[in-house]
Automatic annotation (TrEMBL):
<dbReference type="Pfam" id="PF13279">
    <property type="entry name" value="4HBT_2"/>
</dbReference>
<dbReference type="InterPro" id="IPR029069">
    <property type="entry name" value="HotDog_dom_sf"/>
</dbReference>
<dbReference type="InterPro" id="IPR050563">
    <property type="entry name" value="4-hydroxybenzoyl-CoA_TE"/>
</dbReference>
<dbReference type="GO" id="GO:0047617">
    <property type="term" value="F:fatty acyl-CoA hydrolase activity"/>
</dbReference>
<protein>
    <submittedName>
        <fullName>Acyl-CoA thioesterase</fullName>
    </submittedName>
</protein>
C-alpha cells in the first residue's frame, strides 16, 4: 500500500529561479512520512515512530533525484510514500512527488527519493532495533526493492573548500538535535561560497545551476553551540554540463555528516540545461584536479 499526502506549497518555498528550492523538497518528504505514520498507525507503539518525546525515527540517509521543477501554485503537491525495506534496526522509505492531471493525462513526476531511518532512544542517545509490532505496522506499506549504496570519493580538506558552519537555535528540533532538513541548508550554504571562489572573475550571468541529485548521510547528531563546525567541500567530477560537489561536516576529527550533490548548468530563459563558458569549466576542472 502507498500513502498519498497532499502537501501545501508556500510562497517562502520558492528560490530565485521561481521554483521550489531543492532544500525544501526534503521538508516535504518529512511531512509526508509523518502523515503516513500518524494516519495509518494501528497502535501506540507504531504511532510513536512518527515522533514522541522519548523515541522516534531519525534519518540515516536521504537520496533525492530532481526531475522537474515545481512552479508557484496555490494547489498542494501530491506525495506518495511507501516502504521498500525493513531490517533489524532500519526502515527504508521511498517517495514520489508528482502532479496528476485532472483530465486523466500522464502523471508529472517532480522528484523521486529514498530515506533510510532508524528508531532512536533520545534520552540515551542511541539507536535501537525495531520491535515485532513496529515491523508489522510498517510491512503494510512494503513494496520490496533493492537499496543501492551511494559511492563517495576520498575527502579533500582544501582551504578554498572550507566553510565555518554556525548552528542557529531555531535549527534544533524538540529532541535537542539539528533537524535532518537543516543539513540540506547547511550543505547548500557551504557549497555556494566555494563555487563563487572557484568561479571568481567569470561572467556567467546567463547561466545558472539547478540541483539534479542530492545524497546526504547522517552519522552523528549536530547540536546547538556557539563554536562553528567545519564544512569541507570539493569537486569530484566535472561533466560537459554538470558538476558534482561532495562535502562533509566535521567537529574536529569527528565526521558528523556527508553529502554528494550533482548540479546541472541551466538556462533560466529556455528552462533547459545549458553549456557553461569554457573558462568556467576550466576553473572547475583545475579545482577538481586539486581535489583528486
Amino acid at each position: 500500500m502507498r500513502h498519498v499526502y497532499e502537501c501545501p506549497v508556500r510562497w517562502a518555498d520558492l528560490d530565485m529561479l521561481n521554483h521550489v528550492n531543492n532544500v525544501t523538497y526534503v521538508d516535504y518528504l518529512q511531512e509526508a512520512r509523518v502523515d503516513m505514520l500518524r494516519t495509518h498507525a494501528p497502535d501506540t507503539r507504531a504511532h510513536d515512530l512518527a515522533g514522541s518525546p522519548t523515541e522516534g525515527l531519525v534519518v540515516v540517509s536521504h537520496d533525492i533525484t530532481y526531475l522537474a521543477p515545481i512552479a508557484p501554485r496555490t494547489a498542494p503537491i501530491a506525495i506518495e510514500v511507501w516502504v521498500t525495506e525493513v531490517r533489524a534496526a532500519t526502515v527504508t522509505m521511498a517517495y514520489e512527488i508528482f502532479d496528476e492531471p485532472s483530465d486523466g493525462g500522464e502523471r508529472v513526476v517532480h522528484a523521486r527519493a529514498q530515506t533510510v531511518l532508524t528508531p532512536f532512544v533520545f534520552a540515551e542517545e542511541r539507536p535501537r532495533r525495531l520491535t515485532a509490532a513496529e515491523k508489522d505496522a510498517l510491512s503494510v506499506f512494503l513494496e520490496e526493492s533493492p537499496s543501492p549504496r551511494p559511492e563517495r570519493s576520498e575527502p579533500r580538506h582544501l582551504e578554498a573548500g572550507h566553510y565555518p558552519l554556525h548552528v542557529r537555535f531555531s535549527d534544533v528540533d524538540v529532541y535537542g538535535h539539528v533537524n535532518n532538513v537543516k543539513y540540506f541548508e547547511y550543505f547548500q550554504e557551504a557549497r555556494i561560497p566555494v563555487v563563487e571562489r572557484i568561479s571568481a572573475g567569470e561572467d556567467h550571468s546567463g547561466v545558472g545551476v539547478v540541483v539534479a541529485r542530492k545524497e546526504v548521510d547522517y552519522l552523528r547528531p549536530i547540536h546547538f553551540r556557539a563554536e562553528p563546525y567545519d564544512v569541507w567541500s570539493w569537486v569530484s567530477r566535472v561533466g560537459s554540463r554538470s558538476v558534482t560537489v561532495e562535502s562533509e561536516i566535521r567537529d574536529g576529527d569527528t565526521l558528523l555528516s556527508r553529502a554528494k550533490v550533482v548540479m546541472v548548468f541551466f538556462d533560466p530563459l529556455t528552462q533547459r540545461s545549458a553549456t557553461p563558458p569554457e573558462s568556467l569549466m576550466t576553473k572547475l576542472r583545475e579545482f577538481a584536479a586539486l581535489s583528486a
